[in-house]
Amino acid sequence: MHRNTGYDREASILAERWQRVFADADAIVSPSASCVVTLRETLGDEIPLYELTEFLTDRLGVEDVGAHYPRRVAYHPTCHSIRVLGVGDRATRLLRAVRGLDLVKIPREQECCGFGGTFAVKNPAVSEAMGSDKLAAVESTGAEVITALDDSCLMHLGGMLDRRRSPTQTVHIAEILGTIEGAEGP
Amino acid sequence: MSFPQRAASALADEQLRRNLGNATATITQRRAEAVAELPDWSQLRAAGAAIKDQTLNELDQELLRFEANAEAAGAKVHWARDGDEACRIVAELMHARKAKSAIKVKSLTTDEIGLNNALQEAGIEAVETDLAELIVQLGNDSQSHILVPAIHRNRSQIRELFVRSFAGPELTDDPADLAEAARLFLRKRFLEAGVGISGANFGIAETGSVCVVESEGNGRMCTTLPELLITVMGIEKLIPSWRDLEVFMQLLPRSATGERMSPYTTVWTGVHADDGPKEFHIVLLDNGRTDVLANEVGRQALRCIRCSACLNVCPVYSRTGGHAYGSIYPGPIGAILVPQLSRLETGRSLPFASTLCGACEDVCPVKIEIPRILVELRAEVVRYEREHGQQRAERGAMRGIKVVFAGRRRYEAGQRAGRIAGRLFSRRGKIDRAPGPLRAWTASRSMKPVAAETFRRWWRRRER
Lengths: 186, 464
Known about the structure:
- The complex is a heterodimer.
- Chain A contains ten helices and six strands; from the N terminus they run H-H-E-H-E-H-E-H-H-E-H-H-E-H-E-H.
- By secondary structure, chain A is of the alpha/beta class.
- In chain A, helix 8 crosses helix 9 (151-163).
- Helices cover 47% and strands 10% of the residues of chain A.
- Chain A has helices at residues 2-5, 8-21, 33-43, 52-59, 79-84, 90-96, 119-122, 124-139, 151-163, 173-177; strands at residues 28-30, 49-51, 72-75, 102-105, 145-147, 169-170.
- Chain B is an alpha/beta fold.
- Chain B is 51% helix and 11% strand.
- In chain B, helix 16 (331-341) runs parallel beside helix 18.
- At the A-B interface, helix 1, helix 2, helix 5, helix 7 and helix 8 of A face helix 1, helix 17, helix 18, helix 19 and helix 21 of B.
């Protein structure tokens, strides 16, 4: 957030501290593509840092994590996961292996949802306009749940859904992959 | 006014949003199809970027080579430090020949320096001959798109404007009728004009030639009919050779309009005894470009060939339109060009007018890393405003968050404070009206309060 808002000095201090905190780890897993991108850009590619779906598919070589999630789910490929991190189809491969899950594609799925970090509060009107269009696209799929690799985008979409009293929920992909048969879904 | 304010009023215009959404989606789709036809598109982009970078690295030498070759072919080259100097040169050339009017080819560079107004003040009328530019000029309006400057106007508005300006009341709003009315109006101007003014898409150093691509044929008329031709060219428009032009002739039309080739590609060199203008002047314009060149990250912006693919694909531009950017260079390219050209004196809100989604970089035919430059410029704006004693709303928050996140105890105290604040402001498990700077968040979204249990505590509980 600091880096993308123009506060480089503060961003570097935080990134270096982050590096010290995780210095002993063999693998660091983050549930946010956007954070992974910023850390790689700030600290370099050498640190053993993985976005969650990268970790599961590349490091562990798993596609079926044994999850059970019997709902209609729209996957929103967030900008930083698709265009900057280059996560490709890792998330959809994992989601397709989830038992009972009905995966649907959002029309113009690669268009930004309008979150954009501090953009959401610096340009609230544009952010809302983009979010509304994204939600309309999701609604056209009949999805009950929107999922993504970034909680930040989901926080924006979820906040808008709540304001509209929509029954559609936002659920991070980690929660879907962590739901097993018989357990209460989030 | 800043971008957020102008954008909010643009968004309130539902007709504009629909028109823009449809138009930009159509051009984006057409571009994607035209690009998909070329198997070597990624090599072409790399070549385009490399040619531009190399030329910019040797710009001083290439400009002198261009000047020497242009003058050897009979042109006269002038050097303008800024917009005022360029306007003065054009006005003086016309005064010396007692010319009272000129016809113009669509040119962003002349719009950038406000040439039409400067000429008007000097008693000279400049007539735009590109249909969309004519619409903008007749309506006393401003451009809202690099390539389709009147994209914000619909045809009934255009019909009204034409009836008010030159056409009879029987004119319909059928596009063919509108084009025919403009054609008849302009034809007379073409034949009367003694002076033509153009910009340039490319200047070719090895022969001192100038190239303009366009769709309507007006550009060809403006550059061939008048006795005196004046071209105003930004110094970054230079390419070394005709071989290089081949690369851009593939990149530009496909990126701009989704066409394999532009309907009119005009290239001219110097003057010729029995054909075309008798006198040809080239005004080479700096106007901040050497400052951009000095910025190691930002200089990529000078590769731009003004195709406008980044505008059409931008989720912000396609909703706000160009006027929200407050400059003739709107969209992602405007957001990195305008602040740099003015040494951050104008357009400081523009680098923040982006979600950094990266769609622009993906389509850029010369591979400008627009998001990277936006982030760099954000840091420069923060520094600039700190040095100029201007307060930025978020500075306190950004520092505060840094302090909290930089220490474990402070972070845990912050979490506790957040939980308390969340309890104070939330109703039924959500926050509908947040205080302070977060109010902009809750204007259209509710907010979840900080979770009752921290991740670390949850993790420890699980391990037991």
